[in-house]
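Revision sheet: structure tokens.
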Amino acid sequence: MEPPAHLTAGQRARWDQALRDAPRDVLRKVDAEALTAFVVAGDLVEAANRAQTVLDRDKQDLGKLVARGDKGVAVLSPYVKLLLRAVPLLLRAAAELGFSPAARAGMTIKEPEMLEMARWIEVMQLSERKVRADAELLDIPPTSAQPQ
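Predicted:
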């Protein structure tokens, strides 16, 4: 899945990393908008955090997380306001994409080795069902399909 053309270079790197780290075989092309929201919100959180760090470092007279308002009064920093809006967007997009343990709790995520094992288990179960069905037809007590 290719990132949208409007993403910045940093956002594209974040997009690629998200795809590498995403649960295998979960994301589809239709998820591109949710992934874009995740990437952009993550970029906003990072940018706001960096800007707030600079603001906090450069102003000695005001406390952390505040700025001087129009009338010279200390107000909540605009970067903190941005963080307060961007973080919930980031978390919601992450949950929608299965990027948190809670979001993955209901998912069935199988690694390739597990898929192969699941196929063999299914074959064995089908074989046992056939043995039982044949036994019923012939009125023979059922036995296990597994070799002794």
